[in-house]
């Protein structure tokens, strides 16, 4: 594929943009692949890219029932940070954050990574102590993250009301190199780069069954016919349980809707990401000027990909306490995505009881930030049969009691 560059833009400008190629190929499925990846979200596409780039495995298909990036990858609020509490989480999230820094150059696709800084407010004594513990753990792990005082918070973000009516701001955990990226571009960039390396990205191809013989995977049934493969990766976020059911095993995962909304666009007023966990809401400002606002997950299992008035009300109420100015804003639109929650709020990157079937899921409300690291580790696991970074996230941990507890450490995990 031709590289994107300033020269290419100038060249196309001079000939009325008639020479642009398709961003990625759209092939018919072959009858057999070495590896099939189910789900063209960020994690599936990154896995395909790193399989080809890091391990030379290019006979790979990514099968997507809808359009690529149409799942949670295109529905999230794009927060990227790596200041998690446990060592194994910090390792994979920091790998991902580091890869995000150069991802536009790596993929030759502008993913608009913006390391604008992520601030997690402490609004109770308990939260203050929890963040201090995380800051110490991060320092030990070599991750840049620090505690900041209310005075410093007022300098970093003047629009925060630090003397809130219910919960004054007592301090915060600040990661200066955290930030945001354009979510669709991450999917598109990986798709284009993987396609360039020979991976088949096939949209409108739903997997409806998994062929298994003597405990070993043989291939998949799809809406476009059967396809054989010796290795099949399930990377479908909120549908992990559905695919596991097709393979005959169960997962310790619950699927629930998580919601977000954006306001009308306004002039720049917030140049960082702020997460207010105690009142439960978080906010950043997009390049278009909209305030991007995230709410909580539903308290009951469901597969609805849409918003609800109840969540809008509780999220806006929470943020109005923290940012008085947003009470004057009109909201433009709301939406939901189905997230896959594990009990310890950490992901699963693992082999499964079926030989040749791998799973990458359980990222819950916080898997956008991990896409490059997750794809890197998953590709290693699929190519070599084991991977140091993926190792702690195996399915066995639930049977062996090796939980990676991030639930209390990150009340709003995004
Ligand atoms: C409202 C909201 C806000 C969020 N905010 C953040 C945030 O700020 N930061 C953060 O880090 N994370 C956030 N997340 C979480 C993050 O979006 C997800 O963890 C991440 O995008 C999961 O990516 P994925 O590639 O695993 O899944 P997805 O992007 O959902 O991709 C899975 C794909 O599998 C496809 N699929 C399903 N079944 C089949 C089948 N049978 N056959 C073929 N294809 C199939 C789906 O169509 C889908 O495209 C948020 C999520 C939501 C919903």
Topology:
Elements: H1 6-14, E1 32-38, H2 42-55, E2 60-63, E3 79-80, H3 87-101, H4 103-107, E4 118-122, H5 125-140, E5 146-148, H6 150-156, E6 171-175, E7 179-180, H7 183-196, E8 200-202, E9 207-213, E10 216-222, E11 225-234, H8 240-247, E12 253-265, E13 273-276, E14 281-285, E15 290-297, H9 309-322, E16 331-342, E17 348-351, E18 357-361, H10 371-384, H11 396-400
Parallel strand pairs: 1-2, 1-11, 2-8, 4-13, 11-18
Antiparallel strand pairs: 3-7, 4-6, 5-6, 9-10, 10-11, 12-15, 12-16, 13-14, 14-15, 17-18
The protein binds flavin-adenine dinucleotide.
Flavin-adenine dinucleotide is lined by residues 38-44, 63-66, 70-73, 75-79, 206-207, 235-237, 239, 258-260, 294, 337, 339, 363, 365-369, 414.
Shape: globular
Work out the number of β strands.
Answer: 18
Sheet-strand content, in percent, reads 25-35%
Strand count, sense and closure of the main sheet? 8 strands, mixed
How many angstroms separate the termini? 34 Å
H and E order? HEHEEHHEHEHEEHEEEEHEEEEHEEEHH
Estimated helix fraction = 25-40%
Mean pLDDT: 95
- H/I helix tally: 11
Structural class: alpha/beta
């Amino acid at each position: 594929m031709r590289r994107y560059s300033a020269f290419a833009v100038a060249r196309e400008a001079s000939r009325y943009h008639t020479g642009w190629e398709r961003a990625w190929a759209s092939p018919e499925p072959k009858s057999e692949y070495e590896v099939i990846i189910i789900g063209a979200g960020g994690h599936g596409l990154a896995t395909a890219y790193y399989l080809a780039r890091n391990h030379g495995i290019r006979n790979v298909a990514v099968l997507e029932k809808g359009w690529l990036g149409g799942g949670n990858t295109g529905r999230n609020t794009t927060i990227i940070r790596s200041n998690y509490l446990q060592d194994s989480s910090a390792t994979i999230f920091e790998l991902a954050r580091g890869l995000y820094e150069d991802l536009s150059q790596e993929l030759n696709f502008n993913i608009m990574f913006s390391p604008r800084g992520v601030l997690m407010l402490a609004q109770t004594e308990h939260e203050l102590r929890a963040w201090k513990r995380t800051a110490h753990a991060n320092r030990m792990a070599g991750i840049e993250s620090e505690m900041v005082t209310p005075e410093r918070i007022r300098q970093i973000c003047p629009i925060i009301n630090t003397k809130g009516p219910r919960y004054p701001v007592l301090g915060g955990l600040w990661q200066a190199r955290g930030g945001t990226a354009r979510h669709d571009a991450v999917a598109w960039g990986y798709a284009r780069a993987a396609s360039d390396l020979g991976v088949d990205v096939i949209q409108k191809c739903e997997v409806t069954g998994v062929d298994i013989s003597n405990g070993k995977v043989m291939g998949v049934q799809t809406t476009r016919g059967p396809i054989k493969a010796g290795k099949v990766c399930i990377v479908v976020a909120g549908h992990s349980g559905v695919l596991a059911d097709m393979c005959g095993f169960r997962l310790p995962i619950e699927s629930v809707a998580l919601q977000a909304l954006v306001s009308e666009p306004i002039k720049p007023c917030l140049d960082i990401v702020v997460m207010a966990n105690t009142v439960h809401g978080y906010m950043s400002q997009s390049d278009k000027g909209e305030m991007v606002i995230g709410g909580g997950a539903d308290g009951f299992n469901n597969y609805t990909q849409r918003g609800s008035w109840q969540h809008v009300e509780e999220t806006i109420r929470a943020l109005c306490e923290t940012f008085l100015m947003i009470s004057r804003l009109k909201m433009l639109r709301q939406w939901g995505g189905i997230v896959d929650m594990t009990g310890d709020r950490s992901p699963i990157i693992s082999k499964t009881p079926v030989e040749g079937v791998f799973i990458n899921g359980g990222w819950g409300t916080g898997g956008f930030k991990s896409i490059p690291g997750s794809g890197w580790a998953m590709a290693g696991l699929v190519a070599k049969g084991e991977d140091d970074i993926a190792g702690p996230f195996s399915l066995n941990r639930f049977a062996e009691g090796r939980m990676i507890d991030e639930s209390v450490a990150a009340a709003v995990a995004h």
